[in-house]
Specification:
Helix content: 10-25%
CATH superfamily of the largest domain: Glycosidases
CATH topology of the largest domain: TIM Barrel
Structural class: alpha/beta
Mean pLDDT: 88
Number of domains: 4
Low-confidence stretches: 1-33, 494-527
CATH architecture of the largest domain: Alpha-Beta Barrel
Number of strands: 38
Largest sheet: 8 strands, parallel, barrel
Strand order of the largest sheet: 1-2-5-8-9-10-11-12
Shape: globular
CATH class of the largest domain: Alpha Beta
Distance between the termini: 72 Å
Oligomer: single chain
Strand content: 25-35%
């Protein structure tokens, strides 16, 4: 029997994960992904884990804990040295087949499929600046590629001597060494530590590299860490990336580039932002300084510290290079390393990475591997450092996701090594980097209730906590003891959409406005007994859309849209459902719309409020209406500048400039855009300017205010202040 291609691929993937025998069959890229991403942005960097181990981690840890993506080791074929097998073998590619130290091509495909099924994106570490070192004599590889580095011959990849930069045509230095690290020509056309530098200006080289990246995308890869990006001319990388297809989930691949700081001009990290984000080395260096000194100064941690803009920063506490050269904290730093990782997840700057590698003594040590160099299964109790599984770190990913879009608030410090802060009203954390316990009454920003300390316990589906709890009083305060080298973290149950929060503080920044999203405040204590509450919601829908109900009570899903109550469309356009709720209980609720792709749309406006009585009752509602609001802003700009709109409503990005609405320059100097806003709603808004480097300039003066009508349209005509 001949199986269709997608069925063959599924069988091969399954066999790869369970150790089945694989036939010598060339796999075809997947046509589409069967699942949707979970929406998180935290990257688990599983450094040199083999493919079955990554697949298992996605399924059992990363997906359930809310990690948005996993970074995997370079998947291409690489050189294999005799005897010892240092970790850096995988950074010396010799062919673009996907058989490597981490597993076979079939296992790679199965890993991507498993991660996608768990809602986790896959970012591949890609080595496209160079091939193996010209100083290497080995002609052996993990996948059987044909090559000879001494003669710059790479038959399997299709490269010969003309495919590489050379002295004196490109590199001005004999031996192709970089002698001046501030020279653009030398950095981008000479050899980095003897690694054969690809002639990326040539179309045939660009085509081969783009073909390799496109093959990864075909298997479902969602983005690339670009190794040694500083050594690739920006125009060359832009051309290569332009040839790569969209991902299986319909977006451009996420790109983050390795660009060590220390040079200026065309070699500065900011000069590479046109091709994507950059790895934020300065972030990691500064965290080490603070956690080895006093963390109270982190109150101002951000771009003013010499960091790239948040929306262009892939931040980290450490990575495989830095942990070995001592420039950053690493797992050997003990609680400082863990606390720095917790801070990174809590602070909300950039796209955070949680690094999980392997134990080492020497800087060249191999990951746990067999005698032939193939990496063995990850065993977190022996040889591997599974930071991503650390109880507090793993739970802090959910905290981070719940706090998304909320600004830092309610800062507290003791002047030295204990700090605490909230992210708006969604989450609160305290970190003690000192040597003695700290007890204080903190302003948490949270609503009154009892919260699970997720650093030391887990929240159960029944609404209880397996560890210690913290009580927040009606004023938002809580008395908490934080042990030395430890933390306490709380966040609102169900993680409803973020409420509006201000931009970074300045005289021209917006101020917060009341939330139009669900709160997670506990209901009042119920009396004994249950009653049936029937909900009727009038809402017209399109094909594939359905209306659900959620709210502050566990029976209503506790604001978790994954547990929302599906309503019946039998009386369409009225959607109805009956839920058993505790009698005599005050609660809040809201309706949400879900489509066939899993997208969730919250009903606009404030939460509905009600109180159950002693008998059954009915609540009748109508989905809040929206109006089309057109914004016209007059602003002359320089080349590369664009005008955006943000404001206090979720539809305006809730003051998050990363979610600001781009305006059209079709009527320049008037910039215009139309946004659907809830009817009959007072809101605040402001315009911001963004340039090609990602810099954001806020319009001066107080927030603008306006109110939408109950129906019809709204037009606002403004001039830059």
């Amino acid at each position: 029997m001949t199986l269709p291609r997608h069925a063959r691929r599924a069988l091969l993937a399954a066999a790869a994960l369970i150790g089945g025998t694989l036939l010598p069959l060339t796999l075809q890229p997947a046509a589409h992904a069967a699942a949707t991403p979970n929406g998180g942005d935290v990257i688990a960097n599983l450094f040199e884990w083999n493919w079955p181990s990554v697949a298992n981690e996605c399924t059992t840890v990363l997906g359930p804990k809310g990690y948005g993506a996993v970074q995997v080791a370079p998947p291409e074929d690489s050189i294999r040295l005799a005897g010892a097998h240092p970790w850096w073998e995988v950074y010396q590619p010799v062919g673009y087949d996907l058989n490597s130290r981490m597993g076979t091509e079939a296992q790679f495909a199965a890993m991507v499929t498993a991660c996608h099924a768990a809602g986790v994106k896959v970012y591949a570490d890609t080595v496209i600046n160079h091939a193996a070192g010209a100083n290497q004599t080995s002609t052996d590889s993990y996948g059987g590629a044909s090559f000879d580095p001494a003669t710059y011959s790479y038959g399997s990849a299709g490269y010969d001597r003309s495919s590489f930069h050379d002295y004196p045509a490109n590199c001005p230095n004999a031996g192709n060494a970089i002698n001046d690290w501030n020279s653009v020509q030398q950095v981008q056309e000479c050899q980095l530590v003897s690694l054969s530098d690809l002639y990326t200006e040539k179309d045939e080289v660009r085509a081969k590299l783009a073909g390799y990246l496109d093959r990864l995308v075909g298997y479902g890869v969602d983005g690339f860490r670009v190794d040694a990006a500083k050594h690739i001319a920006q125009a060359d990388l832009a051309n290569i990336l332009s040839r790569v297809s969209n991902t299986a989930w319909g977006s451009r691949p996420y790109v983050y580039q390795e660009v060590f700081p220390g040079s200026g001009g065309q070699l500065a990290p900011s000069a590479f932002e046109g091709n994507g984000s950059v790895l934020e080395f300065t972030y990691a260096y500064k965290l080490k300084d603070q956690f080895n000194g006093s963390i109270a100064g982190l109150k101002s941690f951000g771009q003013s510290w010499g960091l790239e803009p948040s929306d262009k920063s892939a931040v980290m506490v450490t990575n495989h290079d830095l942990e070995r050269n001592g420039s950053t904290l690493n797992y050997k730093s003990g609680s400082k390393y863990t606390l720095a990782t917790l801070f990174q997840l809590a602070w909300g700057y950039g796209t955070p990475q949680v690094y999980a590698g392997f134990a080492f003594n020497g800087s060249d040590d191999s990951p746990p591997a067999d005698a032939n160099g193939y990496v063995t299964a990850t065993d977190c109790s022996s040889g591997w450092v599974c930071t991503d599984r650390d109880h507090g770190v793993a739970n802090m990913v959910g905290w981070h996701n719940a706090a998304k879009g909320q600004a830092v608030a309610n800062w507290w410090d003791n002047g030295t090594n204990a700090i605490a802060f909230s992210r708006g009203s969604a989450a609160w954390v305290a970190l003690n980097n000192g040597t003695t316990a700290v007890t204080s009454t903190f302003t948490t920003g949270l609503t009154a209730g009892t919260y699970c300390d997720i650093i030391h316990g887990d929240r159960t589906t029944a609404g209880t906590c397996t560890g210690p709890t913290v009580t927040v009083d009606p004023t938002g305060q809580a008395t908490v003891t934080v042990n030395p080298g430890d933390a306490v973290a709380l966040y609102a149950t169900g993680a409803p959409p973020p409420s509006p929060s201000p931009s970074p503080s300045s005289s021209s920044s917006p101020s917060p406005s009341p939330s139009s999203s669900p709160s997670s405040s506990p209901s009042t204590s119920p009396s004994t007994g249950q009653v049936n509450e029937t909900f009727h919601e009038t809402r017209t829908t399109t094909s594939g859309q359905s209306v659900y109900l959620t709210g502050s009570l566990p029976a209503l899903g506790g604001w978790d849209t994954g547990k929302a109550i599906p309503l019946s469309s039998a009386g369409y356009p009225v959607w109805s459902g009956t839920v058993s709720l505790p009698a005599g209980t005050a609660f809040e609720y809201k309706y949400v719309l879900k489509d066939s792709a899993g997208n969730v749309t919250w009903e606009p406006g404030g939460n509905h409020t009600a109180t159950t009585g002693s008998t059954d009752a009915t609540l009748t509602d109508t989905w809040a209406q929206t109006v089309a609001a057109t914004f016209n802003e007059t602003r002359t700009t320089a080349w590369g500048q664009n005008v955006y709109l943000t404001g206090s409503l979720p539809a305006l990005g809730t003051w998050d400039t990363g979610k600001a609405i781009p305006l059209s320059s079709a009527g320049y100097p008037v910039w215009s855009g139309t946004v659907s806003l809830p009817a009959g709603t007072v809101f605040e808004y402001k315009y911001v300017l963004k340039d090609s480097a990602g810099n954001v300039t806020w319009e001066s003066g107080a927030n603008r205010t306006a109110s939408t009508p109950s129906s019809g349209t709204l037009a606002l005509n403004d001039s830059w202040k």
